[in-house]
Amino acid sequence: MNSGHGGDRIKVSVVDYNSKWQGMFFDEAKQVASILGDSLLQIFHIGSTSVVGQKAKPIIDMMPVVSDIEIVDLCRGAFERLGYEYMGEFGIPGRRYMHKGGEKRTHQIHVYQYDNVKDVIRHLAFRDYLSCHVDVRNAYGDIKEKLALKHPEDSEAYCGGKDNFVKQVEREALQWYWKKYNMALRPSYIGDS
After folding, report:
1. pLDDT truncated to tens, each residue of the chain (193 aa)?
2. Would you give the distance in Å from CA 170 to the centre of its chain?
3. 124: Cα separation from own chain's centroid
4. Which CATH number do you get for residue 82?
């Protein structure tokens, strides 16, 4: 997904899925949860490392959803002590973005307030769509692998190269996601008159 990382210059490496990524997410999520405290409502593993079988840059993307986005700014020092570079909105209004590991990035955090439904659902729909559509997941992995070989030192070119594919899949994923949950809710709001 386009995460608004314009200007990032980290080395691009795409690898086969690693089952350890789930544990890496949970270990880091515990630390993030302790920083955010009661303002944290939920934390999701998103991005390619969250999709079983997906080729990915080995960077764990996390999406905490909080009751008040302003509280995240107050936690900046705690995140920096944990090794994160705090980037603020970084191109996406209403988000707080930070990353860890410098040029050898290991984790990225995208925090949204609970009522930013558009961005929260966008990430979850994309993840779940790839998990349920192996053909799309594999095509995405192939595109990422080719782009990583073509642009190993230029993450901006790497992200730009997959942007059209991601936008198309995101549109499909959002429609699929809403249909999926509409079907689940339908009996509760449509009854016999």
Report:
1. 444 444 456 889 999 999 999 999 999 999 999 999 999 999 999 999 999 999 999 999 999 999 999 999 999 999 999 999 999 999 999 999 999 998 899 999 999 999 999 999 999 999 999 999 999 999 999 999 999 999 999 999 999 999 999 999 999 999 999 988 875 555 554 444 4
2. 12
3. 8
4. 3.30.460.10
Angle in degrees, CA 71, 79, 113, rounded to 5: 35
Burial class for 50, CB neighbours closer than 10 Å (0-12, 13-18, 19+): buried
Q: Compute how many other C-beta atoms are within 10 angstroms of the C-beta atom of residue 152.
A: 14
Residue where the block lists tokens 């230029």: 154
As for how many domains the chain has, the answer is 1
| Residue 50 maps to a domain | yes
The answer to whether 63 and 84 are in contact (CB under 8 A) is no
Note down the domain range covering 63: 20-181
8 Å CB contact between 176 and 125? yes
